[in-house]
Amino acid sequence: xxxxxxxxxxxxxxxxxxxxxxxxxxxxxxxxxxxxxxxxxxxxxxxxxxxxxxxxxxxxxxxxxxxxxxxxxxxxxxxxxxxxxxxxxxxxxxxxxxxxxxxxxxxxxxxxxxxxxxxxxxxxxxxxxxxxxxxxxxxxxxxxxxxxxxxxxxxxxxxxxxxxxxxxxxxxxxxxxxxxxxxxxxxxxxxxxxxxxxxxxxxxxxxxxxx
Amino acid sequence: xxxxxxxxxxxxxxxxxxxxxxxxxxxxxxxxxxxxxxxxxxxxxxxxxxxxxxxxxxxxxxxxxxxxxxxxxxxxxxxxxxxxxxxxxxxxxxxxxxxxxxxxxxxxxxxxxxxxxxxxxxxxxxxxxxxxxxxxxxxxxxxxxxxxxxxxxxxxxxxxxxxxxxxxxxxxxxxxxxxxxxxxxxxx
Lengths: 211, 188
Description:
The structure holds two protein chains of two kinds. Chain A is an alpha+beta fold. Chain A has a single domain (8-185), classed as Alpha-Beta Plaits (2-Layer Sandwich). Chain A has helices at 21-27, 63-67, 94-98, 120-123, 130-134, 145-151, and strands spanning 7-11, 39-42, 51-54, 105-107, 112-114, 140-144, 155-163, 166-177. In chain A, the strands form three sheets. Chain A has a four-stranded mixed beta sheet with strand order 6-1-8-7. In chain A, strands 2-3 form a two-stranded antiparallel ribbon. In chain A, strands 4-5 form a two-stranded antiparallel sheet. Chain A starts with 6 loop residues before the first strand and ends in a 34-residue tail after the last strand. Chain B has helices at 29-33, 46-73, and strands spanning 83-87, 96-100, 107-112, 118-122, 133-135, 140-143, 148-151, 157-159, 169-174, 177-183. In chain B, a hairpin with a 2-residue loop joins strand 9 and strand 10. Chain B is of the alpha+beta class. In chain B, strands 5-6-7-8 form a four-stranded antiparallel beta sheet, with no helix packed on it. A three-stranded antiparallel beta sheet of chain B has the order 1-10-9, with no helix packed on it. Chain B has a three-stranded antiparallel beta sheet with strand order 2-3-4, with no helix packed on it. Chain A binds chain B through residues 60-63, 65-66, 71, 73-79, 82, 156-160, 166, 169-171, 173, 179-182, and chain B through 1, 4-5, 7-10, 12-19, 34, 36-39, 41.
């Protein structure tokens, strides 16, 4: 049974309070018990407490599936990109490296990539995903577009992203301020910036003072 | 402002979009062989495989049981009509002719082996249904397809691939006419 078309996923990063409820709820899902598929990113931990929950955006052109050499990642007709098929996944990590949103996670112990599948067992029967059902500030929300318009009158959903020359449309929407003009972020330019939340230097001969 | 952002939200297509955005017919072959869309992929689940194996082997088993049943309890003797096949004088010693018995059957082969001796067999080789050729001087029937040999007197296979004997047509010579009166089973 496909996920009802009228129900959509909305991420509102500005509402995230970093409580990690979504991570906890995700790891309680029956299909992947004990393993959370959500990553809570700290935007700039040194200066801000702002956090951002990362769930799968479910692209119309899923890069993870494009790069999969084992044909293990599939997209169902309702637009949900499913987690890797266990008999096919060879744990090569291609999808983990390729995803522009940084969603797939490699479970090295099980030799299996696991990613957010929008709680397919729940959403396909009309329930909310685990994360959206527990999020206290509804930074992760699952509902109809009309509900969202009513609850977030100063935001609007966006689902089109630009990566280099490739435009990607996603099933999951990100709420942006109503007056926000279109912004283009050069992803490759940020490739050599220090990783979020970690002060790890790539160049071992360079001391921290030189930076 | 709204015009600038008009394209920021678009509904998703039911099928995945290739990175170059071109139509599916213009995509390379490997993309059709390894589709990203679930519906276009061929999955054989363990349950499907087991179901297939059980059903096919069950069908084979039932077929074997049916064959055993048929050979044990099937009607063995059919009532054969009597049919004139040839006049004795038509066929010289060592000569042969084909006929149908009963009418419409596969070709049968009548061979005159001596002044009073006549034999008749199904002309189809029991290996792969090639027509057999009489070699009266050698007392054999020869199938040239795979070099199979049958005994002319009994129809038993004596060399080559055939394993079963040729079905024998029972004959009755009365007066100047040769009559076919029945066909012997060849299953043993």
